[in-house]
């Protein structure tokens, strides 16, 4: 059974950094998604089975970095220069494919989510 467990959310001020972590059992393309109140879930970053394959939403390019530690079965989302509009519940998710994607429907396995709140 696939298990995805996120950690690392919190309340920070604009301009601060946070690192989200996701413990993953299995070999999957991994993605980070977020959902703000009243909005649809959106893809933020994804990393393929090859760690030099990734993709980002335009809204986070240059600020967020996704990475993977195969040895420790972890996936990370480093979030720098956070903005109030980054406030959301963040989810890690796994997809049985080879290349990175931000398409929500490609992901069958989801974590429970972690809240990120950025104050202005």
Structure in words:
- The model has no long low-confidence stretch (mean pLDDT 96).
- It is globular, with a radius of gyration of 13 Å.
- It is mostly beta strands.
- 0% of the residues lie in helices and 49% in strands.
Write the layout of secondary structure elements.
Blueprint lengths: L3 E4 L2 E4 L4 E7 L4 E7 L6 E6 L6 E3 L7 E6 L4 E6 L8 E8 L13 E2 L3 E6 L1
Poorly predicted runs: none
Q: What integer is the average pLDDT?
A: 96
Calculate Rg over CA atoms: 13 Å
Helix content: under 10%
Distance between the termini: 40 Å
- How large a portion of the residues is in β-strands, by DSSP E? over 45%
Q: From N to C, what is the helix and strand string?
A: EEEEEEEEEEE
Given the structure, what is the number of helices?
0
The number of E-state strands comes to 11
Outline: globular
Look at the helices and sheets and give the structural class: mainly beta
Main sheet?
7 strands, mixed
Annotation keywords:
single chain, 120 residues, mainly beta, seven-stranded mixed β-sheet, four-stranded antiparallel β-sheet
Quick summary of this structure?
The chain has 120 residues and is mainly β. The chain is built from no helices and 11 strands. The mean pLDDT is 96.
């Amino acid at each position: 059974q696939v298990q995805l467990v996120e950690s690392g959310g919190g309340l920070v001020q604009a301009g601060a950094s946070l690192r989200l972590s996701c413990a993953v059992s299995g070999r999957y393309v991994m993605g980070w998604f977020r959902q703000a109140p009243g909005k649809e879930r959106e893809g933020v970053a994804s990393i393929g089975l090859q760690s030099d394959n990734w993709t980002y939403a335009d809204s986070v390019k240059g600020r967020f970095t996704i990475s993977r530690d195969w040895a420790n079965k972890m996936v990370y989302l480093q979030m720098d220069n956070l903005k109030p509009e980054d406030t959301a519940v963040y989810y890690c998710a796994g997809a049985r494919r080879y290349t990175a994607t931000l398409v929500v429907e490609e992901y069958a396995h989801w974590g429970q989510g972690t809240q990120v709140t950025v104050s202005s």
